[in-house]
Write a structure and sequence with these properties.
The protein is of the alpha/beta class. It is built from twelve helices and twelve strands. A seven-stranded mixed β-sheet has the order 2-8-7-6-5-3-4, with helices on both faces. Bound molecules: pyridoxal-5'-phosphate.
Length: 379
């Protein structure tokens, strides 16, 4: 099997597994317990928080552990909306290419009386800072623009948008789920107010993530109960998963000087090979992109069939977002970029990881060439 769907989820790193095992075994205590077993778990939790802070360029207190990227996005936007509403600001600005975790939270907030402006990307799939600036109003509470798009892989000008927001007194959130552990990233340098990440995208376990909220901001709880996470998230912490996430992030960030150029080389090899196929178009070509994400559209081919046949040929890829898989409509990302239907229906995303090899890239190119030719002949 050639696994080329790391943007959906990445294999667990050995460092993550090693960090998790003691917390699933002898160090099983509840970190809120005051006895020695509890305090041993509490120490592991504090160590994981410190490790995450060091890797992310934030302070430990700015981290709230969540159940993943979805929860972190929900909590960031709910917090920003609450802070805005407290000062009479009820307008939110968001990129049109955001993940459903952002878009559907915004839809829920709009039902509660918030006005939402969706900022479309340009044809390359980039939400430009200038377009965001034009959408700002005196009553804008917050802006949310992701760091790297999960479908096309295009990088968004998050730092530029953060600076714009800072200058205009508007809160800024970035969904960095497809960037954390995969690109050099510093919360302090980026200067956003909120950042979301998800462990399973960089080799940590599924069902774990974090919201980083700037010092002085207390995230509004989505869950009520105990006083865990300084009251920002009730419920006994998933200590093993959190330790696994911290170990995965540290290992991923340490390896970045090797993995980023290696992934870029694989990505460019794949882009060069697929570009030679007839009626094939790289999505977001010309825009800066995440090191491992390649998105193509093949005119006259149904992406569901292409993916099925690729799977039969031993290649795991996807049409875009894993959580929207099976949808027969072109994705909201491609639609907002103005990609014509004939192309958008033939969308495929390959997202590469450090364990992929040049030989695997060549095999992917061969498989796509053979399948696309066959489908077009039969179609
Ligand atoms: N945001 C982006 C950009 C994503 O790609 C994903 C997952 O695909 C999420 C949020 C949701 O993260 P999680 O799966 O941890 O809930």
């Amino acid at each position: 099997m050639i696994y080329a769907d790391h943007a959906a989820t990445a294999p667990l790193r050995p460092e993550a597994l090693a960090a998790m095992l003691p917390l699933l075994g002898e160090n099983f205590g509840n970190p809120s317990s005051t006895h020695s077993a509890g305090q041993a778990a509490a120490r592991a939790l504090a160590a994981a928080r410190g490790e995450m802070a060091a890797a992310l360029g934030c302070i430990a207190r700015e981290i709230t552990f969540t159940s993943g990227g979805t929860e972190a996005d929900n909590q960031a936007l709910r917090t920003a909306a609450a802070l805005g509403a407290a000062s009479g600001k009820r307008h939110l600005v968001v990129g049109a290419i955001e993940h459903p975790a952002v878009l559907r939270t915004l839809a829920a907030l709009s039902e509660q009386g918030f006005a939402v402006t969706l900022v479309p990307p340009d044809a390359q799939g980039v939400v430009r800072a200038q377009a965001v600036a034009q959408a700002l109003r005196p009553d804008t509470a917050a802006v949310s623009v992701m760091y790297a798009n999960n479908e096309t892989g295009t990088l968004q000008p998050a730092a530029e948008i953060a600076a714009l927001c800072r200058a205009r007194g508007v809160l800024c959130h970035t969904d960095a789920v497809q960037a954390a552990g995969q690109l050099p990233l510093s919360f302090a340098a980026l200067d956003v107010d909120f950042l979301s990440l998800s462990a399973h995208k960089f080799g940590g376990p599924k069902g774990t993530g974090a919201l980083i909220a700037r010092r002085g901001i207390t995230p509004v709880p989505l869950l009520y109960g105990g006083r865990q996470e300084r009251g920002a998230r009730a419920g006994t912490e998933n200590t093993a998963a959190i330790a696994g996430m911290a170990a995965a992030l540290t290992a991923a960030c340490r390896a970045l000087p090797q993995t980023v150029p290696a992934l870029i080389a694989l990505r460019e090899r794949l882009i060069a090979g697929l570009s030679k196929l007839p009626a094939a178009r790289l999505t977001g070509g010309g825009a800066p992109r995440a090191p491992g994400i390649v998105h193509f559209c093949f005119a006259g081919v149904e992406s569901e069939t292409l993916l099925l046949l690729l799977d039969e040929a031993g290649v795991c890829a996807s049409a875009g977002s894993a959580c929207e898989a099976g949808a027969l409509e072109p994705s909201h990302v491609l639609r907002s970029m103005g990609v014509p239907e004939i192309w958008a229906h033939g969308a495929v995303r390959f997202s590469l990881g450090a364990e992929n090899t040049p030989a695997e890239i060549d095999a992917i190119i061969c498989a796509v060439r053979e399948i696309v030719t066959r489908l077009r002949e039969n179609g």
